[in-house]
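Hi support team,

I'm filing this because I wasn't sure whether my run with guanosine-5'-diphosphate finished correctly. The job status page said complete, but I'd like someone to confirm that the output block is well-formed before I use it downstream. Pasting the exact inputs I used:
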Amino acid sequence: MTSAPKKPSADQTPNEPAESPPVQEQSLDEMLAKAFSVRTSTTPAADAPPVESQRCGLIAIVGKPNVGKSTLLNALVGQKISITSRKAQTTRHRITGMRTVKETQFVFVDTPGFQTRHGNALNRSLNRTVVGTVNDVDLIVFVVEAGQFNLADAKVLALLPEKTPAILLANKFDLIHRRAEIAPWLRDMQERHNFAEFVPMSANNAKDVDRLFGICEKYLPMQPWMYGAEELTDRSDRFMAAEIIREKLFRLTGDELPYTSTVIIDKYEEEGNLRKVAATIVVERDGHKGMIIGEKGEKLKRIGTEARHELETLTGGKVFLEIWVKVRSGWADDEARVKTFGYE
Ligand code: GDP
Ligand code: MG
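And here is everything the job wrote out:
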């Protein structure tokens, strides 16, 4: 049993930002020691605290593609809600996940990678999403790969408003073997933006992720929760089904498939404990269709089977999944299809 709910207020909270000097005035060792000393227990509270001691806020996780944003979000929320892949650019929707720890509800916003290479309509809309998101949150977590900063990172950083506190999250810290090498990089980063805090960590390390809750908490306002304590996402089952199929698709086709391929859910029906789902994978070219179907339809079958298993875990029921592959330019003559059954 934890102690009686305390009444956090801006000036009583541990780790209050005003207690520590700004990031620039600390030495690297002090900062590393401080960042690694924060401890948080993520055990859920037995009862919801009274409304007047609830804390709740929005956190935007931003950064260029492939720095680990989706991995981080999934780890924070404790369930797979955003797809991850070695291939950049697989997250196309703004996904929110939430996690409630003791008095605080963290509402996370994942943003698609800021596009620097192409200027097409899809990319322009992704960029608008990033800008819209960061102006609307209590805290920004700017994710970079520890020790690295290039033009793509700079373009995302340029979008961050001065008024919103931003944490510099140096991810993939496990890949840094000599910590001393980080010092000049960190000094350089501090000159680029007035970061409130520096957090070296690895999104795939559970302890680091727990620590991040304790670090982010103090930036969120005292206000009633927006969601129930147990809620993890506000996305529909239908949306999750599309995301899961997309993840399997990109994982199993490797780097060959362009990220412009999309998944459309044509049908999502619930009959008691059974879900009947029909989906279409839409690709740009005939060649892409071949890649997805694979030799004798093997690849498409695997995509279907793996997606179905995951959907069954997510929904706790049986799933009947039917997947079609269509080429955008020639819908009529495309017959590739896989059906996978909930009973095998
Ligand atoms: P996003 O594009 O920013 O959402 O990046 P993802 O979350 O999809 O991650 C991109 C790749 O980096 C994946 O292969 C992850 O497994 C990997 N990755 C993420 N976090 C870490 C980390 O802390 N350490 C290491 N070594 N790899 C990571
Ligand atoms: Mg992602």
